[in-house]
Design a protein that fits this description.
Strand 3 and strand 4 form a beta hairpin. The strands form two sheets. Strands 1-4-3 form a three-stranded antiparallel sheet. It is an alpha+beta fold. The protein starts with a helix and ends in a 14-residue tail after the last helix. 29% of the residues are buried. The protein has one domain.
Amino acid sequence: MKVALMLLISFLYANIYCQIDNDSIIYWEKNILKWTDFKGEIPDSIGYQVALSFIEFKTNAHWEQGMPEYQIFAVFNKYKSWSTDTSVAILEHEQLHFDISELYARKIRKAMFELREKADTCVNDYMRALTILVKECNETNEKYDTETAHGIYKKKQKEWDKKIAKRLYELKHYKVNYSKYSTK
């Protein structure tokens, strides 16, 4: 059962990805991204896009005192992220995508904590919570891009900045100390 849990977490979802090479990732921190972090190759066909932040969840699962224990981190992949525009506004827009992912990492940590508090040992319950929140994260990022027109609508961008900052603050108890994991 323990091996099955780790395999499920590691392989079931493409958007929940364990990155081994820490040199290629940046753990979340408020206002950490710089344009020099966008080291990915720009695709031949990018359409209207001027930047892409490849943000994922790094996970670690193990058993602790007979209960599943999860570590969830929001990370930025330098070598899969790219940009053709180095304006401050676009960088701030991309940073908020990173902030949204951290918000959902905190929501996932909260959900895992609540399941552990109930002494829930059913791996499917953890996976169900994880699946719902990852889907919600993706939908929130899409809504963010739509409502701000990828950062073009400044008023909407400011609204999103405030909304995500407020939600991050509300879940401050589920923040982790990324500095002990980061190589940056």
